[in-house]
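the two lines:
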Amino acid sequence: MQGADDIEARLREVSSVPETLAASFSAFEVIRLAARAHEDQVPGLFAAFMTTADAAVTGREALTIAPSLGACSTAQVSGPGPAAAVDAITDDLARLGGLLSDRLTRAAALAQAPADKAACEQAADAARQIRDLMARGHDDRHLR
Amino acid sequence: MTAIFADFARPAAEHIAAAVSYLGELPGDARYGVVQQLARLTATMARYAADIPLPDEFTPAGRRQLNPRVRAALDARLAFRRAAQALNHVTDLPAYPGPDDDSPVVRHLAAAARNLAAGRDLLHTHLTPGPSGAGAGRSYWTPVITSGPVTGALLAEIAGHARTLAPWAARLSVAGPVGSAVPASALLSLHTATRWLWIAGATVEAAYRKLPPPAQAHTLLHAIPANTPPTRRPPADGEQVPELCDGITVTAERLRHAALASADQAGWSPAATSLAWRRDALAAAITSHTAEIILRALTERARHLGASPEICSQLQNAAAAMNQAWPAWRDTAHEWDTVSTGTHSSTEPAPVAEEYADLVLRAGRLAYRNPHWTPAADQASDTRDPADLACDRASIIKVAAAMHTAADAIACNGAEDREAARAAIGGFRLYKSTIVLPGSLAARHRYRPAHQERTDEILTAYDNAIQASATATTALEDLAITLNAPTAILATARRTAAENKHHRTHRPRLRPPARQPTAIPSIGRLEGTLREHHINDPSLLARASAVDDAARELLAEVTATPQRREAISSPALRNQLSAPPPRARR
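prediction for all of em together
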C-alpha cells in the first residue's frame, strides 16, 4: 500500500513524544485515504473500510489538540495508490493500526503535558479500533 | 410495547355500549353514581372537542365562510361545553358511596371515563411540552393528530358516544324511584346536559352524513402511539430473522425519538458535534448498504415464491432507491473527514449512537450469513441465502416492514442532523483542517473557520442523502401498502402529516399592514354587553370584567411586538439609532 511502508518505518524510528505525534498524525491520514479508496471495492467489506476511515478521522482529530504536535514537521501524505488486493490492504492497515496503538500508548506514558497525554490516549484507542476492524482471520468464510 | 390510542378508545366504546344496554330500573344509590360518572364522561368529551384545532368560534364574519364540517365541529364543541357546564356541579357532590358501588352500570361508565381520559392523555403526549418546557409539537405524529381527517375521525367518535349516551341518560333524568338519592338539581342538570349531548351528536352526524371522515382516518387515529420511545432491546447473539426484524423496528422507533430529542438540544448540548453527525452519516451509509442487499434478496425470493409482478417490481424499486441512498450517505460521511466543530472533551455519548449501533448490527446480521456479524473485516461473510431470509410471503412482509422503519428512521435522523449542522454553520462553529488534499503536504495548522463553499458542500451532501433516503422510504411505503404490512400505517401517517404540513405552509399568515400602526381592536366590551342586556348578576359581571381585563392584557402583549419591530425598522428611528450620540456630533 502506497505510503504505508514509509510511515510504518517512520513510526518505528520515533523516540520522542513530538515525533510520535507527528508521525501518528500522518499515519492516521494515510489510513483514512487508503480506507476511503477501498471502501466500495468489496461489498462485504464496505462497513469495515467505512468504519476504519471514521476511526482514522477520530484519531487524527484527537492528535490535533496535542500541544507538542507543532514541534516536529509531518511527512508528505500521498493520495490513494493503484488498486491493490484487498487482503493486502486490510493486512497493511491492521499492522499499521497495531503499530500506531503501540507507539501512541508509549507516548502517552512519556508525555508530560496532560493535553499531550490525553490526545495520545484517545488516538491510541482509535488506532486499536483500526487494528481490530482490519485484522482478519484466514478462513473460508470471507468474501472474495 | 408502546400503548396506542385504540388501547383506550375501544374499551371506552365497549364500556359505554355495555352501560346503555342496561334497561332496568337502577337503585337510587346507583343512579347517583351513574349521574356522577356521566358528568365525568361529559367533561372528558368536552375536553376532546375543545382540543380540536378550529378557527375562532365567536367571529361571525369568519363563521359564514366556514365549510359545513368545520361549522359543525364548532357547534359540537359549544354543545359539549354546555353539557359539561350543566353537570359541572355534580362532580363537586360527595363521591358515590352507596351500597350499590358494585353496580355494573356505574363500573362501566367509570371505566369508559377513565379510558377516554387516558386516550386524551395519550394524544397530548404529542402536543404538550415536557417538564423542561421543550418538546411541544416535537413528534412525527403531531401533524397527523392535528390533520383534518384525523380530527374529523376523533370528533365523529366522540359525537357517536354522545348519541349513544343521550337517549339513555334522558330516560334516567326523568324517571326514578321515589326517595331517590340523587338530588333533584342533579337530575335537572342531567336533563339539560342530555339535550346538549343530543345536539352535539346530531350536529356532527348531520355534517358527516354526506362526507364522513375516510375509514383510513379512523385506522390512523386508533394507531397513534404514546409519544414515548420503546424500551431498548440490545442485540443478542443468535437472533433469528423474526427477532432481528422486531429488533430493527424497535431500534428504528427509538432512533426517531432520539433524533427529535437531540434536535431540541442541538443548540447547547456538548454532544451536538461533528463527531456525532459523522457517526450518524456512517451508520446511515452502512445500514442503507445492507438494506440494499436485503431488498435484492427479497426481490429474488419474491420472484421464486411467485409473488405478483407489482410486488416484485416494488421490491426492485426499493432496492434501486437504496442503491442511491447509501452512496449519498457515504459522501456525507466523507464531508466530515475534513470539517469539524473543533476538539471535543465531552465524554457524553452521541445522542443516537446507541440506537444507530444496534441498527447497524441487526441490519448486518439480517443481510449476511454470519450470525455474529459486526463491521469488522474478520466478521465479513457471504450474504444470506434469500430462502433463509424469507421462507414465505409472511417473512417477506416482516423483513420489508423492518427495512421500511429503518429507512424512515434514517431519513428522519438525517433531517435533524442537517438542521443541527446548519445551525452550527450559522453559529460559525465549523472549522476545516488544512491537511486534507491528497498529495498535499500534511503540515499541521490545527483548524481555521470553514469557508462558505465548504459548508455549502456539506449541506448539499445532506440534501442529496436525505432526498435519496426519502425516495427509498417512499418506495418502501408503496410496498408496505401493497403487502398490507404492519408499517402501512406509517406510510399513511407520513402522507397525512405531509398533507397537513402542506396546507399549513400555504396558509397566508396574517400580518399587520405595512407602514401602518397596529390598531388595537375594540375590546373590553363583555361587561358592557351584559349590562346592556340587563344582566346584573354580580358574579357574572365580575367574571366578564376579568375576561375583559385578560383580553386587554393579551392584546397589549401581542400588539407590542409588531409595534416595536415596526418602530425599529421605520426609517426615522433607524436613522435615529444609527446617528452618532449628541456629544460626538460636536
